[in-house]
Design brief:
The protein is of the alpha/beta class and 145 residues long. The chain has a single domain (2-136), classed as 3-Layer(aba) Sandwich (Rossmann fold), CATH 3.40.50. It contains four helices and seven strands. It has helices at 8-21, 38-48, 84-89, 92-97, and strands at 2-5, 27-31, 63-66, 73-77, 101-105, 118-124, 130-135. Strands 1-7-6-2-5-4-3 form a seven-stranded mixed beta sheet, covered by helices on one side. A hairpin with a 5-residue loop joins strand 6 (118-124) and strand 7 (130-135).
Length: 145
């Protein structure tokens, strides 16, 4: 699936649409450069899951947990991790076992630890425009903006 976004609000709307249909146990592998909109997408994802509080980047904490929605959301930033082994060291398996959604920024740093993820690629086309591609998962047929 592919969507065009001309604002952070539109990027959040695409994330919210995914949050409304995503099943428990899904891993999302984000791809996209610095400032592409991965955290904006995650804010929408959290809203679509029913989470109403603030959502921020986990840059310095590695993972932020958002509870209280339809499913728990675990938002990871792997920018500072050197390998998938580091991911296992922070308890990746425990997060997978909790039945929520794991959204992983800088997923390419830990790609070998991610089994059959939904891949969300955000391409920066201009300072304001993004192309968002979402691949993987039969549930995507139900995704509507």
């Amino acid at each position: 699936m592919e969507f065009l976004s001309d604002s952070p609000a539109r990027t959040e709307a695409v994330g919210a649409a995914l949050g409304r249909v995503i099943p428990a146990g899904t891993v999302i592998a984000y791809r996209g450069g610095l400032g592409a909109g991965k955290t904006a997408f995650t804010r929408g994802l959290a809203r679509g899951l029913g989470y109403t509080d603030s959502v921020t980047s986990p840059t310095y904490t590695i993972v932020n947990e958002y509870l209280g929605g339809r499913l728990p959301l675990f938002h990871f930033d792997m920018y500072r991790l050197g390998s998938a082994e580091d991911l296992w060291d922070i308890g990746w398996e425990d997060y997978l076992d909790r039945g929520g959604v794991c959204a992983v920024e800088w997923s390419e740093n830990v790609a070998e630890a991610l089994e059959a993820p939904v891949v969300v690629t955000i391409h920066t086309l201009s300072p304001d425009t993004r192309r968002i591609e979402i691949e993987g998962g039969d549930f995507l047929a139900d995704l509507r903006l």
